[in-house]
Design goal:
The protein has 154 residues and is mostly helical. Helices cover 87% and strands 0% of the residues. The protein has one domain (3-151): Four Helix Bundle (Hemerythrin (Met), subunit A), CATH 1.20.120.520. The chain starts with a helix and ends with a helix.
Length: 154
């Protein structure tokens, strides 16, 4: 498998682990872990989504993505915006600005993120990545890898 997809799938596993950690933190009333998960979403997931939207998606469009793939790219980008809204809700909760029942809110956020990411990551791994591997040549994949490395200061 080409390195960008290895890194993207590795990131997916970390997202799944973060969702599980948030669920556990909400159940155990562990604000420190919930805060750590919030920081992970803010930093790592934002960068992951940039990798997809600024490097992978445009190259797929340039490579002549068929209409069904374009529709998938639009859906995934829309889901990224939905995830950002839930991440903001998590940030509000862990920052102490939430006025309601914190632990109920964190449980609801954890459940929402877990379900949303489960479906989202499945769409990417079952449909987007295999199609991208077929459409993109080594030069495009190498360029994606360079973009991803540059986002990480490498």
């Amino acid at each position: 498998m080409h390195p960008p997809f290895v890194q993207l799938e590795r990131s997916h596993r970390r997202i799944e682990e973060a969702c599980e950690a948030l669920s556990t933190a909400a159940r155990d009333h562990d604000i420190e872990t919930a805060s750590d998960v919030c920081a992970f979403f803010s930093r790592q997931v934002r960068r992951h989504e940039e990798d997809e939207e600024r490097s992978l998606f445009p190259r797929l469009i340039d490579a002549g993505a068929p209409p069904e793939l374009r529709a998938l790219l639009e859906r995934l980008a829309r889901e990224h915006r939905e995830h950002e809204a839930v991440h903001a809700r998590l940030e509000e909760a862990v920052s102490g600005r939430f006025a309601g029942d914190l632990w109920s809110e964190l449980r609801a956020i954890a459940e929402l993120l877990t379900e949303s990411y489960r479906a989202h990551l499945e769409r990417e791994e079952a449909h987007l990545f295999p199609t991208a591997k077929e459409l993109l040549g080594d030069d495009a994949l190498d360029a994606i890898g360079r973009d991803m490395a540059a986002r990480r200061g490498r």
